[in-house]
Specification:
The protein folds into 2 domains: 43 residues; 218 residues, 3-Layer(aba) Sandwich (Rossmann fold), CATH 3.40.50.2300. It has a 6-stranded mixed sheet with strand order 8-7-9-10-11-13, with helices on both faces. It is built from 8 helices and 15 strands. The chain has 291 residues and is an alpha/beta fold.
Amino acid sequence: MRQGDFVTRISYGGDVMFKIERIEQLKAILRGVDYRLLADAPLTDLTLTKSAETLDHPRSSSPEFRESLRRLAVSQVQLQEKNQLAINQKQKPQHNSYFEVPGKVLHLDGDPSYLRKCMQLYGELRVPAEGFYVPEMQMAEALKRLLPQIKPDILVITGHDGILKNRQGNGLHNLSSYKNSQNFVNAVQVARQYERNRDALIIVAGACQSHFEALLRAGANFASSPARILIHALDPLCIAAKLSYTSARETISMLEIMDLTVTGLDGLGGVETRGSYRMGVPGIQHTEEPV
């Protein structure tokens, strides 16, 4: 086996596909292909798997995620049809066009590979987004600079997390039992100091097995993980993309968007939130500016 191979772990029944990040003596450092998971395993516990999936190709993912992308695309088309119908009923034929102002996303990710994959998909979904690789411990400080600079409508804070094996005290209720939940909470609190209104700045926060309740208390609109499960690497993106193309006049809940995620209500939950999409009229004529 070598760096870049796709493998599964025999001891876990091959439940998750990994890519070998690097090999250290007789141990491999592994990165989940579809799930935000970093792990290590002895080489003897690994078995090669034939797959064309890579972290660099956003379309080669699980069938469940491809279905999520299809539903997102359909919802965008339905929104456009709704807009055009409203324009046609109110305007003369020469003025029956409009322009779109979808919500702008600022995405902070503690994993550069997942961030690259997300940015490709934001582009495909026509979601205006700026992404930054920031280690989880540095996210709170980075947001103090980035929020006033980017002025996003939607903030995604994600990366790697997990329940520590050697946890003490109050178990799953204690933030110290999690790898990065405290760092995510700190970042959410900084964002809420910048903008208290949950509709003016929508926050999607957390990663695999994150402390869901603590993230909501800190001010997140949507967070992982209510059932402390592994979430799909791109589930936070799906929620952000939907909010970007949901009208500011409409409120959506997790019940309405759970089908856009792979892991559903076990993986993510949240509070009712207004969308950040705005339609403008009449349509803008795109002309070249004079030199």
